[in-house]
Amino acid sequence: MSTVREIQTGLEGFRLWPGALSAQAQAALLAEVLMAEAVAPFYRPETPGGRPFSVQMTNLGGLGWVSDRGGYRYQETHPATEKPWPPIPRMLLELWTELTGWPEPPDACLVNLYRDQAKMGLHQDRDEADLTAPVLSVSLGDTAVFRIGAAGGRPTRSIRLASGDVCALTGPARLARHGIDRLIAGSSTLVPGGGRINLTLRRAR
Ligand code: MD3
Ligand code: FE
Questions:
Q1: I need a labelling partner for 26 at 20 to 30 A (CA). Which of 33, 93, 125, 152 fits?
Q2: Could you say which ligand is closest to the alpha carbon of residue 179?
């Protein structure tokens, strides 16, 4: 991993490592996610207003991000099975330390599954207790058209996130508005059935 190269994005605090994960590492990570799915199946959350997300979600780690009519929050159990979330794979914990240098390990890993026309509207991530801690994102499968812009109505930038790309959000970028406009269908064969999986490592508490 020490050979991965960081590219300049021009957005302060947004660090991007294209191709950080080898094809082998991507397959190994995907296998871990598919195993975890047996305990913590992907499900479709609802917004607090009662609209279903087009993205399917599950979580790994002590805490998982959920959304329903009660609002957005982190909780220790899967909303449908009521079981604890499976652990965060060791390779992700190592990646977190290597790329962020943050002294504490992540306690939450949100796993987003995009199939077909799934997308994610522009939003800020602010449900975590310590907003100075970084977020680390790993992309698997089809390339996504990702949009990010500084807060306060400033223009957004469009960046492609391909399978094996890793990005970290720190400093000013941590509170930037961002979302997924669309997938580029058929750009990867990694995810069985097609689509994209994104894992975000976080400090929730
Ligand atoms: C910028 N996920 O889970 S990953 C999310 O591809 C989320 O599934 C998208 O936005 C996805 O909240 C984008 C890149 C990312 C993740 C977290 C961020 C960008 C971010 C947090 C703050 C700012
Ligand atoms: Fe987000």
A1: 125
A2: 1
pTM for this entry: 0.96
What domains sit in the chain, N to C, each tagged with a CATH number? 14-202 (2.60.120.590)
Tens of pLDDT, residue by residue over 24-70, are 999 999 999 999 999 999 999 999 999 999 999 999 999 999 999 99
Q: Which atom of ligand 1 is nearest to the CA of 139?
A: 6
How would residue 152 be classed by pLDDT, with cut points 50, 70 and 90? Answer: low
CA distance 96 to 187: 26
CA of 104 relative to ligand 1 center, distance in Å: 20
In sequence order, the β-bridge partners of residue 198 are 112, 139
DSSP state of 84: B
Answer yes or no: are the C-beta atoms of 88 and 111 closer than 8 Å: no
Residues 6+ apart with CB under 8 A from 99: 1, 15, 17, 20, 136, 166, 168
Nearest to 21 by CA among 100, 111, 94, 87: 94
Q: Which residues line ligand 1 at a C-beta cut-off of 6 Å?
A: 110, 112, 120, 125, 135, 137, 144, 146, 148, 167, 169, 173-174, 176, 178, 180, 198, 200
What is the average pLDDT across 164-173? Answer: 96
Residue ID of nearest Cα to ligand 1 atom 16: 137
